User: Which sequence fits this backbone?
């Protein structure tokens, strides 16, 4: 985990044709002031309120936060997989390509070649009436492999991620595999397209802890070998910190803090990040009271228009309720909070 | 050690498939023994398929054991008659994982609690109302929440209602089956604090079924580690989690994400 690798990503020109490419932009992913509103019973409601993020090629970024903070919606925006009727402003660039301006064919190419998605529930991803071999074969043939070549490649991929008895697995149906094994099949399918960026939305939340360790280890190892970027969505700060280079903490549809994963405990500055770190049992002696954040997690719609955390912040001041905080670089990270003192900023 | 509120000996549960062509037996729980002292707190931890939930359901009377004894508050539990079940319900109550499924969605919070009180106590209407308010206070809900339907409440608030409902019968033992697993971290912290408070205030004992070892460390005195239906290791929480003796417990403890943790891949083909 110590070797933080940021390799140059070979540009795959064929995958990004048909859209304007900003050659000067070396970012793998760049999200600028993304705002998303979804239709509700009383008109549109915000779910993302100005998310900005950047990822370098080959980087792993952890997107953490509680339910409703907008983690999944951010990932879905990258794929343009938003619910019907969503209103979006701001831009998403993948390797310099503006995702919002892609036509249907180019969008399909982006989704099938440049990006790969791994969801929480592998059983909802894999067709239950087809075999594992069919599932992987379909992905590989779409990449241009012949039927026999796809079969051999599927076996090779499964073996690479530590699946045993490959021949048998390829003939099995999803219901014959455990959740951990099936999630590895989904990861194999995601890797098969040699994507530049893997979007993993709570990929191990449904798994047992020992299986979770195995699956994240495989995901980490494989994406490093292939120099793929990883956007890792999790509610578990420690898990994200172990798999990622940087951590972005989301609350109520905004990013409140970004910092290097190995500085998470030492340099977390936003009151919400600090509260999250202290709320986990295990951070205090057994029997002692856990620190809690008063109130409950707010959605982007409920949260104040100024600082989103003002209603629940233990250190709230008047300015927090009058002016939205700027997202500023601080030390090794960046934070959106009025209370982070100026001397820290200069230091 | 205090008088045990729950004494489980040599518990065994075999599930049989109903298929006449391919009769199959599955041993979910195999020779499991544990005790919960009055006012104590015991965790059963294990991964999916370890049999921990089956143990909890047997204790709560939702599943009948194939063999073994369950002694609740000094009395061996036998039979599934209405009387036997009601008697058991005064002693042991259960809180489930998903508060979205465990509450009646057409019943207000106050009605839900009053129903349990009418069933298990001799309180009159005024007494029930007063006790409902007390229960809401105990679990940290506003009294105004009494008039709400479950759909108006958040997941954390619903789980508080489920805990209040379980405590309404004034049980000696609460069986919590992954009761905080579905909650967000900050809400989980609130509910864990509430459980500690409720135990201190009422002297209720906990049988805590969970896969989350850090939760165990926080709320339990003793822990039983299960795998494949059997007890792998048991003892005081600090001893078992800080110095696990069995390889399985060591692996379980080692898999918890924590500062400085590096996930490692073990031999291929371990996961089935």
Assistant:
């Amino acid at each position: 985990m110590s070797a933080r690798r940021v390799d140059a990503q070979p540009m795959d020109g064929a995958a990004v044709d048909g859209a304007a490419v900003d050659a000067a932009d070396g970012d793998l992913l760049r999200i600028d002031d993304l705002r998303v509103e979804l239709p509700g019973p009383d008109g549109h409601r915000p779910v993302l309120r100005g998310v900005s993020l950047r990822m370098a090629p080959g980087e792993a970024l952890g997107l953490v936060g509680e339910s409703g903070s907008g983690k999944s919606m951010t990932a879905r925006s990258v794929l343009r997989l938003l619910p019907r009727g969503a209103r979006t402003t701001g831009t998403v660039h993948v390797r310099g390509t503006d995702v919002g301006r892609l036509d249907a064919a180019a969008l399909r190419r982006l989704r099938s070649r440049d990006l790969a998605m791994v969801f929480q529930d592998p059983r909802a991803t894999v067709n239950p009436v087809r075999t594992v071999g069919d599932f992987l074969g379909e992905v590989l043939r779409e990449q241009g492999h012949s039927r026999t070549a796809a079969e051999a490649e599927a076996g090779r991929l499964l073996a690479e991620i530590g699946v045993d008895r490959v021949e048998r697995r390829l003939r099995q149906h999803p219901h014959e595999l455990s959740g951990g094994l099936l999630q590895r099949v989904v990861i194999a399918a995601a890797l098969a397209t040699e994507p530049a960026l893997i979007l993993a939305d709570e990929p191990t939340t449904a798994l047992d802890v020992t299986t979770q360790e195995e699956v994240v280890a495989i995901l980490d190892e494989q994406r490093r070998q292939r120099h793929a970027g990883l956007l890792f969505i999790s509610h578990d700060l420690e898990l994200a910190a172990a798999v990622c280079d940087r951590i972005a903490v989301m609350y109520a549809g905004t990013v409140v803090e970004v910092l290097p994963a190995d500085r998470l405990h030492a340099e977390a500055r936003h009151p919400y990040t600090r509260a999250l770190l202290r709320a986990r049992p295990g951070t205090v002696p057994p029997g002692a009271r856990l620190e809690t954040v008063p109130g409950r997690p707010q959605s982007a719609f409920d949260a104040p228009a100024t600082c989103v955390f003002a209603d629940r912040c233990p250190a709230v001041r008047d300015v927090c309720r009058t002016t939205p905080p700027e997202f500023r670089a601080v030390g090794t990270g960046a934070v959106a909070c009025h209370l982070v003192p100026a001397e820290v900023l200069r230091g | 050690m205090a008088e045990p509120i729950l004494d489980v000996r040599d518990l065994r549960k075999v599930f049989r498939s109903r298929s006449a062509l391919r009769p199959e037996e599955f041993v979910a729980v195999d020779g499991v023994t544990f005790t919960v002292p009055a006012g104590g707190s015991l965790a059963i931890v294990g991964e999916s398929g370890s049999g921990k939930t089956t143990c909890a359901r047997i204790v709560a009377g939702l599943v009948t054991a194939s063999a073994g004894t369950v002694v609740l508050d000094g009395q061996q539990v036998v039979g599934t008659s209405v009387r036997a079940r009601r008697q058991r319900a005064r002693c042991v109550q259960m809180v489930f994982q998903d508060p979205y499924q465990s509450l009646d969605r057409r019943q207000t919070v106050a009605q839900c609690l009053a129903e349990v009180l009418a069933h298990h106590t001799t309180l009159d209407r005024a007494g029930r109302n007063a006790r409902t308010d007390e229960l809401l206070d105990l679990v940290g809900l506003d009294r105004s929440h009494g008039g709400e339907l479950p759909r108006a409440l958040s997941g954390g608030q619903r789980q508080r209602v489920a805990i209040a409902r379980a405590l309404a019968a004034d049980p000696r033992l609460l069986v919590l089956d992954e009761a905080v697993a579905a909650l967000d971290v900050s809400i989980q912290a609130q509910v864990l604090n509430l459980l500690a408070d409720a135990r201190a205030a009422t002297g209720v004992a906990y049988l805590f079924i969970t896969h989350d070892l850090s939760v165990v460390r926080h709320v339990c005195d003793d822990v039983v580690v299960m795998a494949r239906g059997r007890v792998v290791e048991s003892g005081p929480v600090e001893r078992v989690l800080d110095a696990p003796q069995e390889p399985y417990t060591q692996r379980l403890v080692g898999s918890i994400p924590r500062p400085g943790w590096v996930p490692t891949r073990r031999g291929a083909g371990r996961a089935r």
Notes: The radius of gyration of chain A is 21 Å.
